Structures are given as C-alpha cells and as structure tokens.
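INFO batch 0412 | record 1 of 1 | parsing
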Amino acid sequence: MFRKVLIANRGEIAMRILRCCQEMGIDTVIAFSSEDRDSLPVQFATESVCIGPAPAAASYLNQDALIAAAKEYQCEAIHPGYGFLSENADFAEKCESNGIAYIGPSSRMIRDMGDKQSARALMKKHGVPVVPGSEGILKDWKEAAQIAEKVGYPVLLKATAGGGGRGMRTAFDASEIQNAYESAQAEALSAFGDGSLYLEKLIQHPHHIEVQILGDTKGNLIQLGERDCSMQRRNQKLLEESPARILTQKQRDAIHKAALRAAKAVHYVSAGTVEFVLDRENNFYFIEMNTRIQVEHPVTEAVTGVDLIREQIRIAAGLSLGYKQSDIHLTGHAIECRINAENPARNFSPCPGRVSFLHFPGGNGVRIESALYNGAMVSPYYDSMVAKVIVHAPGRLEAIRKMRVALEEMTVEGIDTNIDFLYLIMYNNDFITGNVDTGFLEKNTDAIIRWGEESRRT
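INFO prediction complete | emitting tokens
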C-alpha cells in the first residue's frame, strides 16, 4: 500500500479522499492554489504545497507543478478526484513515466474512452446499444447536415473530447445545424483544445441512467448498481438517486450487463461509470464512460456499503478487488442533493463570498460531504458546488422525507445557495412520483421558484 498520496484537487472531494487515506494509514499532501491557502483540506492534510495562483490553469491544471510536488514530497501516487485533470490522458501518462501511480485507469484507457466517437464505435462493436448518429468525426457542418437528414431531427452535436455538458449543441431543424456546429466547435476548442465533433440523434427528455463499475488489474470486474441522474439543469446534474425508480428488474439486469460488456471491452481498471439514456419506449443507449470517480458516488456507497475511494486506491496499488459480484446487494434508497453557491431566482447566478454562519444537518442516514466551515471563503474561481447532502432510508419516499428534514435544518449564511430550491423539489408531485426526465427543470424551474415565493408570502 502507498505510504503517501498527493491529492490534486480541492473542496469536498479533496476532503473525501483525505479522510479515506487517513483511515487507510496513508499520509496525504494537498496541492493547493494560493486562493485555497486557508481551505479545510490544507488544514487537515499531513502536508500541503502551493502549486500556483488562483486560476485553475496556473494551479490545479498545471501538470508539471503537480508532478514536481509529488516528487519533492516523495509521494508514490496522485489522486486527481473529479474534474480538473481526472480524465486527462496526458497527465496520467506523465505520472506513469515518472514512476508515480495514477489513482485511476491507465492513460490508454482514458484515451480510449475519452474520445467519445471512438468509444461509441467500440461499444457498438461489443454489442452495447448506442444512439444513432455519425460513424466518425464530422468534417464540417455540411456533413453534419447530411447525417442529420438521415437520422432525423432533432440532433445533438457533441465534442469528442467533451465532458461536463460543454461542447454540446442541439439543432431542431436544418436551419439551425450550421450555427449549432460552429458554436459547439468553438466551445470545445476553448474548453478542451480539440474542436472535433460527432453527431447523435437527440433522445428528447430521456432519463439519464449510469452504472457504477470497479475493475482491478487481475481481470476482476463488478457493477454496483445504477444511479438515476435525470434531474439536470443545462446538462449539469443537481440531484442523483439510487436505485433508479423508472427501471423494471428486467431493464435493470439488462443495463447492468451492458455496462459490464462496455467495461470488458476496454479491460477497465479502477472506478468508472458507464452512462446511458433511457427513451420514452424504455430503450437504453450508451452515451459515454467516465473514467474517474463521480460527484454522485456517495449514493452508490450508501446502498451497497462499498467505499469506492478505498477500492480505487487499493486497485491503483495493485491489490485485488475486495468484493465479488455476489457480494453486491442494493439495500434501501439513497438521494444526493448538490448544494451550490448560486441564486436560483437570479438565473442561478454564482454567489461567491464568505460564509458567516454554517450548520450541517445530521442524524441516522444523513451524510454531508463538504469543505465549508464558519468563516470559509467561497471562491469565484472554481465550481459553485460547496456541499453535498446524502440521505439513505429503507425506501424512496422515506428518503425524500429524510432529505426534506436535512435541507430544512441545513443553514448557510453569508452567501446565497440553492438549498431552498432543492427543498421545494422534495415537495414537487412529479418528483415524488418519479415523473421526471432530463427536461424536467427546464420546464418547471420558474414554477417551482414562484411556488416557493407564494408559500413564503402566505
């Protein structure tokens, strides 16, 4: 097992990894930007090192600085968390060439699955259903228009190196295809340095279902059930739960098997997620594979009892999986809400600032993941998510009730958050009955906010 690990991330995921390492008897080094000098991870890590100024490009994305820090502090491994460099094949390769274990899949696997179009082709070859679309990278918008006519509008243009909802544009008819292509390409170039695009038929208002997998270097591979991540705003997840209420047992078994086929196709090693969309006829299609730990991994941990970060670290150290497929049983229901420093009434505008008072909920089946504390500064330089609230209960309705209580108790003063908005969702009839899809918030956000304002007035 590793003696010392460098954590190349910040915020709640850095704290999550740090705590796990401490439990495993592993020393930690937090690589931080000057903006995060007073952050909770810096205060709790065994050691810490400043790797650059506030902008992520000069710090958390500075590959050479991270490698140098790992060497200077004699770290045997680097954990990238999620976001930043977590799916960067070049960074994984630099770790490998410098004799540093990368806690994640190999650079080859990241490349194979990071190129979304190549991944599509590989899945199709191994019998995993994919959304109809282009067979390769698009040459220009005119080729996109030709393919769109064949598969039928609406279509989705996607960056082959994309992720996090960026480099994606929709065209509902031929008049929109050129603008959608050029806009997606420009954003992809800016975000990923690669403007390559492919095209898929847009499955309108699907359910977003993902399956958690773990694979080790010995060839062992298991799935740990699915998560429903349909509650999204602008392709960014807001709420996740496990198991997915929408699936029958037959569909659940089929999607789990498809996820394992996908992982076996690349001989996957580490923690990963195979993502699918489920259409209105309950057909499911592969969309991508995330070669990292997910923000929503705690809901899977809640229903399976498996510590995914611990398994990820053990796998990177060359150890066998601590579980067989027969050991995995989903118990109860878990829901996660992402707490963001943003104002829903002002089009979810980010709200950085200093936290003047903080109180987290607790109790049986309530878990908080956060790096906030009284007096903490929420930076404008990074993602607005500041905490996650996870609840676990025997059933879905009990979990919803538990989440209501947790959100009602949670107090963050000094900055605006989306806590009240999430609380209102917990009382929405469509959410309670599971009648939601990825277009739910697009259609209902204004009504939810108005209902909240009316409730406060009365």
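INFO post-check: The chain has a mean pLDDT of 95.
INFO record closed
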